[in-house]
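Before going further, learn to read the protein records used in this course. Taken together, the tokens spell out the fold as the letters spell out the chain. A record is reproduced here so that you can trace the correspondence yourselves:

***
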Amino acid sequence: MRWGNSVTGNRVELRSEGLSLADLEAVAHGLPLILSAEVCQRVEQSHERLARYLKENRRIYGVTTGYGPLADTLVGSDFSLDLQKNLIAHLSTGVGAPLSRIHTRATMAARISALARGYSGISLDALDMLTKCLNLDAIPVVPSMGTVGASGDLTPMAHIVGAMMGEGEIGLGGFEPGPAKEVLAALGLSLFRPGGKDALALVNGTSAMTGIAGINGAAAGRALRWSALLCAGHAEVLNGRREAWDFAFGEVRPHPGQQRLHRWLNRLVQKTETALDDSHGVEPGQLVYLGESFQDPYSLRCAPQLLGAVSDQIDWHDQTVGIELNSATDNPILPDNQDRVLHGGNFYGQHVAFASDALANAVITMGVHAERRIARLCNPRLNKGLPAFLQPEQPGLQSGFMGAQVTASALLAEMRIKATPASIQSIPTNGDNQDVVTMGTIGARRTGELLDLLSSLLAIDALMVAQALDLRIEENAGVSAGNAVNELLAWVRKRAPRLTNDRPLSEEIARVARAVALPGTLVDGLAGFD
């Protein structure tokens, strides 16, 4: 697996420069996260300043006041523990299926990263407790719904902190969850008792949407590489033409993503001799019907432009989420070199909400492209002599990939139904204190669901490209696939045999879809991608 620069050995070290999205994915998939000495020092200094302010009886939101519209109530230091405990209790109202273990780990890592900036006033003990739970793989059960992404992700974070306090459930090492209090006791961890600003600092930030979005960005980048590789496979089996993929098009239209896709696609087919060949000439006075267009359909011809635009959207998404991952996103903050507490709105998740919606559009676009590639391979009028639905044996009696194509159509419909943007769905709440909200976590979750659907579409595409390659090789039609496409064929055949007689394909589609989505798969190490 290709992890980030902070990965050393079998762990990720959180230093002052923060985490990369690759680091976040590594932690989400199980690597421990270690706080560096410089990070611990910054956190302690910030907490010491907060302690001094409390001794000076300063008014600090959520520490010496009530919450939200109740901030007009001043709360004395004698009630500090109750104030923090009650915050977690009243916010633990999530509903719905729990977040996945990967998304919850990403959320925890994102919160640790934000607090490690040293602007929040959290105690090192509180941050250490969250980090220990992450590294022991003691992952709280977090309902997926209930946050509007405006005062941060209060509800999901409250369930995480509540589990640290012994409430709710914790799953240990990916096993069936048990009562949080019992799991913590078995691990030798004392129940967390938040004081000062600990509870508020832990819940009041954009870490759920940021963590999930970070995982989405990595998954989308992987899906883009799969899309490019499969597109190269289609070019091989459909005798596509190299001309449209010439890098000159990228030079005169220098979008970075388009230029990247010109490089990728040409590298992925560079070993082939016959695919993407341009040999037609025109003699003076001729009027000759060639029988086919000398230009490929847009799904092949415009692949650098289509997937290039997707690539640029992924880059923008990842840049935005990467900044958010390494930002202080709570309220109030304790800025450096200022002897005061600042009250504001860094918890407001609009950046990530917009980025998630933009990524969702890019993911759906990859789905549209995959479905069109699949449809062309199935159609004997369009697939350059391949059998209908890629079934040469007893057509009519046997139907090949006919059912799989219908499933692909249904998957794309499922994706389009989820196309409504979340970032424009503001609903005033919290007694009109939160009179505008972002719904950023809903957007990030929605994009994750779209990526799951896309993995199934790409799996069907991969099975069909492999089938078409086998048929071309069998008929000795002059197709000599490039190295990358040959690797694709071998990769698919390790997971699913060639389709000879009709058989159920659901399990094979699911198996390939899971493999497509995993880090460290074929496209993460294939020569041709930069």
In short: The beta strands are 7-8, 11-14, 33-35, 95-98, 138-140, 143-145, 169-172, 178-179. The first helix runs from residue 21 to 28.
